[in-house]
Amino acid sequence: MSDKDWLADRFEENRGHLRAVAYRMLGSGTEADDAVQESWLRLSRSDAGEIENLGGWLTTVVARVCLDMLRSRTARREDALEENATAAPPVHSSTRDPEREALLADSVSLAMMLVLDRLEPAERLAFVMHDMFDVPFEEISRIVGRSPEAARQLASRARRRVHGGGEVSVAARSQQRRVVDAFLAALQAGDFEGLLAVLDPDVVVRVDAVAARAEAPKEVRGAASWARGAIAFSKAISQRAGATIPMLVDGLPGLVLAPGGQPQRVLRFTIEGGKITQAEIIGDPARLQQLELGVFEG
User: Fold this and answer.
1) What is the pLDDT of residues 17-46, one digit of tens each?
2) Has domain 3-162 been given CATH number 1.20.140.160?
3) Long-range CB contacts (< 8 A, 24+ apart) of 147-155?
4) Model-level pTM?
5) Class for domain 170-295, per CATH?
6) What are the residue boundaries of the structural domains of the chain, listed by start?
7) Tens digit of pLDDT for each residue in 89-147?
């Protein structure tokens, strides 16, 4: 066996792990494959005989490749926002990504991916590498070019954002999640009585100009009024049910409508005494971009 064949075999042994790291970092199967391929090219151009821990070396390389790709993606996104700040976010990505589409059937995984997409590149790398793949902060620090303590702080900051921050108790979060789940189930089923059961009789609902129907009121008061209006849209909502995800929105319980993995509408709730007392429906792209999304555990 030639040295090149031996090296290729060792790389294949690590491919699955490298792709898992790249996919969590990038959220795209196509981009993950590109990052893995780039790591092979860098390995093939290196002096492999000087590498003591090939698996660790490859993990570091693919992480650096992903970090560069995330930074490039962030720059492109910022340019796009500046060019057209009022454009609605796309419902579907321009290229079909079967893996990302598969996440639509797994609300927990999709919620995590939506949150990771909002982290700064270095935060995302530190969180993914440490919390998901147990990479020590000493190694992470070399990838991001910061001290181990700074890398630890990046992961900690990302962790707080992933879990929504705040000081709400586990019991309170569990109750909130039950209310949101019941609301979503009733909405998708067109269950008027089920909606009334989780709405405060005097609930106040505010809708921004983008999310509101033409000539529809921007504020609705009363459970019955909102339930009737919500059910009118229940069929359209239910068609995209797999993309309607319970999430934390600025630390509050809510729902994110994300067909194709792109947030398009957000409902943010105030829940008191097991009832929804206030709701805000947000569709403005600029506001959607500014919202802090978190994984809704409970």
Assistant:
1) 999 999 999 988 999 999 999 999 999 998
2) yes
3) 151/126, 152/126, 154/122, 154/123, 154/125, 154/126, 154/127, 155/123, 155/126, 155/127, 155/130, 155/131
4) 0.79
5) alpha beta
6) 3-162, 170-295
7) 333 333 445 555 554 445 557 889 899 999 999 999 999 999 999 999 999 999 999 99
